[in-house]
Amino acid sequence: MDLFDVDDRTARLFVLGDVLAILAFVLVGELSHGIDPLARPLYVAETALPFVVGWAFAGSALGAYSVRARESLRVGLPRAFVAWLAADAVAQALRALPFFHGDAALTFYLVAAAFGGALLLGWRALATTVLAR
């Protein structure tokens, strides 16, 4: 089995949880900056979109949805972390464009890498452990 083999089961199991983890990261960030997500849902969506796009690209390209990533924490967590760092870089690049609010900032990259990565890896560790049983 190739390290990048993907099956539909893997994708279905992880995509929803990954997107929810990314959205949770964005929501916590918006709330910590005084943004009311209920009053400004489009603003929050615009904040989340670069991260979701970055994850869609990097997660699939770097093997975060492989069968082996689903079956093994030793394979899955490092792969997801590297993919998240790449997704964060893509998100920062997108935020530097005039189509999105915000900008590309090293400090925000580091915050997103740490806190977004913790949520993403935490969810994936839990899911992988439960599925292994």
From TrEMBL:
The keyword Aminoacyl-tRNA synthetase does not apply. The chain crosses the membrane at residues 12-28, 48-68, 80-100, 106-126. Keywords: Membrane, Transmembrane, Transmembrane helix. It holds the Pfam family DUF3054. This is DUF3054 domain-containing protein. It comes from Halospeciosus flavus.
